Amino acid sequence: MSNNNVETVTSTLDRVKLALALLVIVAGIVAFSVLADQPTVVRVGIFIGSLVVAAFIAWFSEPGRRTISFSRDSYNETKRVIWPTRKETTQMTGIVFAFVVAMGALLWLVDKLLGWVIYGLLLGWK
């Protein structure tokens, strides 16, 4: 079974835009390293600025538009989710904790039983 719905970047202009965005990010990283004698605020500002410029460049490519569309659709989907109430969340958390404690006790009991069978009965160790 193959998935033929994979979308790739086919436009040369889109590839150039994405390569330029990547180059801007690399330039921001290099500038952060080269400007070691500058205050940290300046260095971080330059790096964040490079990320903003790279995002702006990538936004105008087709993959950037698809990403924005996907983000918008994801946000709208989370608004439609029916989230559990505080009471339901507390009850489910209690059930999970009780299950973990019960499984821990069961595994401890099985471990002790197997240890007694192997070391006490079969090998004769105390």
In short:
With 126 residues, the chain is mostly helical.
Characteristics of this structure?
126 residues, mainly alpha, 4 helices
Written account of the structure:
The chain is mainly α and 126 residues long. The protein folds into two domains: 1-81, no CATH class; 88-126. Helices cover 79% and strands 0% of the residues. The protein starts with 11 loop residues before the first helix and ends with a helix. The relative contact order is 0.07. The mean pLDDT is 90. One of its GO terms (molecular function) is protein transmembrane transporter activity. Its main location: membrane. It is found in: Membrane. It comes from Eoetvoesiella caeni.
How helical, in percent, are the residues?
over 70%
- Termini distance? 57 Å
Rounded to an integer in angstroms, the radius of gyration calculated over CA atoms is: 28 Å
- Work out the number of β strands: 0
Order of helices and strands: HHHH
- By DSSP (H or I, 4+ residues per run), the number of helices equals 4
Given the C-alpha coordinates, what overall shape results? Answer: elongated
Work out the oligomeric state of the chains in this entry: single chain
Give the percentage of residues in beta strands: under 5%
Count of spatially separate domains? 2
What's the main sheet like?
Answer: none
* Poorly predicted ranges: none
Structural class: mainly alpha
Average pLDDT metric: 90
